[in-house]
């Protein structure tokens, strides 16, 4: 339905968030080692995460849960030509919810604010998958 690569840009935007989080995690871990609250070896063996990097570590893990379904949906929509401006808008809603969720997670970490952001992303992604199923069933 789309003749452009508009479906791929939200995926790139989410990947940018993940790369940023890896950079931030590395920085926070290095600071923890320098401050003496962590040992460099504990990261090799995946032992306890120091408090300085725990929120970043947890948020990064979140980027490989529901977002895996997001990337799958985007690729499936693109490959089956089921993508349209509605699915692109839903993709951007999902990515925006992930960015704001990350901001809340890394700052106040208030579940009161994080939960609605998760739900917005969840339902936008669910709508993408429903549209894909309808498209495939009717075409």
Commentary on this structure:
With 139 residues, the chain is mostly helical. 78% of the residues lie in helices and 0% in strands. It contains 6 helices and no strands. It is elongated. The two termini are 12 Å apart.
Oligomeric grouping of the chains: single chain
Radius of gyration over C-alpha positions, nearest whole angstrom? 18 Å
Strand content: under 5%
Main β sheet profile: none
Determine the fraction of residues in helical runs and give it as a percent range.
Answer: over 70%
- Low-confidence stretches are none
Distance between the termini: 12 Å
Give a short synopsis of this structure.
The chain has 139 residues and is an all-alpha fold. It contains 6 helices and no strands. It is elongated.
Annotation keywords:
elongated, 0% strand, mainly alpha, single chain, 139 residues
């Amino acid at each position: 339905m789309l003749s452009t690569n508009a479906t791929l840009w939200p995926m790139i935007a989410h990947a940018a968030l993940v790369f940023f989080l890896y950079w931030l995690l590395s920085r926070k871990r290095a600071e923890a080692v320098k401050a003496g609250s962590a040992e460099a070896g504990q990261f090799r063996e995946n032992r306890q995460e120091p408090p300085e990097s725990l929120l970043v570590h947890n948020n990064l893990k979140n980027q490989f849960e529901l977002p895996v379904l997001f990337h799958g949906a985007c690729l499936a929509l693109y490959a089956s030509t089921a993508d349209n401006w509605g699915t692109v808008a839903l993709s951007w809603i999902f990515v925006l919810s992930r960015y704001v969720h990350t901001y809340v997670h890394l700052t106040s970490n208030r579940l009161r604010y994080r939960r609605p952001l998760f739900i917005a992303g969840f339902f936008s992604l669910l709508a993408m998958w429903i549209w894909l199923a309808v498209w495939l069933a009717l075409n």
